[in-house]
Write a structure and sequence with these properties.
Distance between the termini: 66 Å
Number of strands: 12
Helix content: 25-40%
CATH class of the largest domain: Alpha Beta
Radius of gyration: 21 Å
Order of helices and strands: HHHHEEEHHEHEHEHEHEEEEEH
Largest sheet: 10 strands, mixed
Number of domains: 2
Shape: globular
CATH superfamily of the largest domain: Alpha/Beta hydrolase fold, catalytic domain
Structural class: alpha/beta
Strand content: 15-25%
CATH architecture of the largest domain: 3-Layer(aba) Sandwich
Oligomer: single chain
Strand order of the largest sheet: 1-2-4-3-5-6-7-10-9-8
């Protein structure tokens, strides 16, 4: 007996949710599909929900088990870099010092790793906060982005907050939950707290603190630059989503699919078109099938309101991928760059194959983010 098309479409959506929101949200999507439609197209003779789930998931239950490597799950082949072994810390330490620490506040506890370049002599230096994507950790993200190597070249610190499986079974930052979208609460308070702890323990130039992320990490970076403009001077968002685009699972899935937004988050309804507060550089592949490319243009839209200055350049020499690069200066003088990378998937552009979710073809997103960041200190 053949499953109907609508139900199969719901299952495909659930699988993609697993990548950016985690297995609990994917399971909820499956349960919702079971409640609203018959998988086999008719009520008569339809199997029980348990039989439907059994037909869709592997017999060993590996899809939602945390101890099974993602490369062994049914959809691993569609995830760039996931079949590779996660790097060891020694792979990414370079000549500097890469240490593991823990921070705690009223919202909970998070581990983080801090890279201090070999040139650091307690002089004021920039700090870049890097938020990993789902299924990643600090070592994986550092290896894939090669941000520590750039820290050696330019002399800045790199901070990697780590999302534990206790907070999200797939280690996704919970960017779509109202409790994790506000300053002083939830995950934003933890990320900001870790940032301030590093600023207190090292000689960080407070005018040159930046934040960046990939996918779910990019979506959380968008939250952070909106909620903490006094802390972060600029943000880099790769394959992410705009602040305030979702407030629960259905709205998150709609935003990921590129559907028309009916409004921003209930927490911050006008956020999506508010006057920009800080510079942003955005990267998105136009063949990203996990987070729709329209999310990249939506992040730049607030900069284009009113008498904005705009310039566009196109290049076929991106180290492999052609790209369209848009420069925008908002009416209030805040800059943005948007790199639409042609033929690129849901992966960090110009990244190393030693990390997951990377695309070795350029442009080099890490180098371009660093260039953009260092050109945009905060002016107090």
């Amino acid at each position: 007996m053949k499953m109907n098309d609508a139900f199969l479409a719901s299952m495909r959506e659930a699988m993609e949710l697993l990548r950016t929101a985690g297995p609990l949200e994917a399971t909820e999507a499956i349960q919702r599909a079971l409640r609203t439609s018959s998988p086999w197209g008719s009520k008569e003779g339809s199997p029980a929900p348990a039989q439907v789930v059994e037909a869709l998931l592997p017999a060993d239950g590996s899809l939602f088990r945390n101890d099974v490597p993602l490369a062994k799950t049914p959809f691993a082949s569609s995830l760039p870099g996931q079949a590779r072994k996660a790097p060891s810390p020694s792979d990414v330490e370079a000549r500097g010092h890469f240490s593991l620490k823990t921070f705690a506040n009223h919202a909970g506890q998070r581990a983080y790793k801090l890279y201090v370049p070999s040139s650091y002599r307690n002089e004021p230096v920039p700090l870049i906060v890097m938020l990993h994507g789902c299924t990643q950790d600090a070592d994986d993200f550092a290896a894939g982005t090669r941000m520590n190597a750039l820290a050696e070249l330019h002399g800045f610190l790199v901070l990697y907050p780590i999302q534990p499986t206790e907070a999200n079974p797939s280690r996704c930052w919970n960017w779509f939950r109202p409790g994790d979208q506000q300053s002083g609460r939830g995950e934003p308070s933890l990320i900001a707290g870790i940032t301030r702890e590093v600023m207190a323990s090292h000689n960080v130039d407070a005018d040159r603190v930046y934040i960046a992320g990939l996918s779910a990490g990019g979506a959380m970076a968008a939250v952070m630059i909106h909620r903490y403009p006094a802390l972060y001077a600029a943000a880099g968002i790769h394959s992410g989503l705009p602040q305030g685009c979702a407030h629960d699972l259905p709205s998150a899935l709609a935003a990921m699919k590129g559907g028309k937004l009916k409004g921003a988050s209930r927490v911050d309804a006008p956020a999506s078109m508010a006057q920009p507060k800080r510079p942003v550089i955005v990267f998105h592949g136009d063949t990203d099938h996990t987070v729709h490319p329209s999310n990249g243009s939506r992040m730049i839209a607030p900069f284009e309101v009113g008498e904005a200055l705009k310039r566009t350049e196109r290049s076929s020499d991106g180290g492999g991928h052609a790209y369209t690069r848009q420069f925008v200066t908002a009416a209030n003088g805040v800059d943005a760059e948007y790199w639409l990378i042609h033929g690129a998937p849901h992966a960090w552009a110009g990244g190393s194959s030693r990390g997951s979710f990377t695309d070795a073809k350029g442009p080099d997103a890490s180098a371009e983010m660093v260039r953009f960041f260092l050109a945009h200190p905060q002016h107090r």
